[in-house]
Amino acid sequence: MEMMKKAAELADEMISTVGWLLNRASSSSKLYDISDAKGLTAEVSVSIQGAKPGEVVVLLGHSLRNFSARAVNGNDVFERGSKVVIVDSGANVVYVKSFVDAEIDSRRQVDYE
User: Fold this and answer.
1) How many other C-beta atoms are found inside a 10 Å radius of the C-beta of residue 32?
2) Model-level pTM greater than 0.85?
3) Are the C-beta atoms of residues 95 and 89 closer than 8 Å to each other?
């Protein structure tokens, strides 16, 4: 009878420890949504050919994420390894434009006077 009691106490302790670990892990990690990728630089992993979607890899938080990708301008072609900027996102896809075009846009000065 004493052994059964010790086994039950050990099982309770293990369950408590596992619960604590799971709680700790879930509170310290953030799940990222596809919309969080907007504005980030990505690398093309599967070429984007005009209207044909491809795939990009982006560092989101502390992990690399893959997203289906389409060019904002339907005529653009991005080969594997190209740098792009994610400018928008849909339900399961991100929309990208050339990294060079994004640099030019950010340098453009607009005078409102």
Assistant:
1) 14
2) no
3) yes
Reported confidence tier of residue 25, pLDDT bands at 50, 70, 90 = low
Please write the tens of the pLDDT for every residue from 52-75.
Answer: 899 999 998 888 899 999 999 888
Percent of the chain's residues with pLDDT above 70: 71
Give the number of other CB atoms < 10 A from CB of residue 26.
10
- The arrangement of secondary structure in 34-107, i.e. its CATH architecture, is Beta Barrel (2.40)
- Please name the helix (run of DSSP H) or strand (run of DSSP E) that holds residue 66, with its range, or none: strand 63-71
> Which phi and psi (to 5°) does residue 25 adopt?
-65, -40
Q: Quick one: tokens of 22?
A: 């799971």
Give the C-alpha separation, 33 to 61, whole Å: 11
Q: Where are the domains of the chain?
A: 1-30, 34-107
Task: Enumerate the H helices of 1-113 as residue ranges.
Answer: 2-28, 99-107
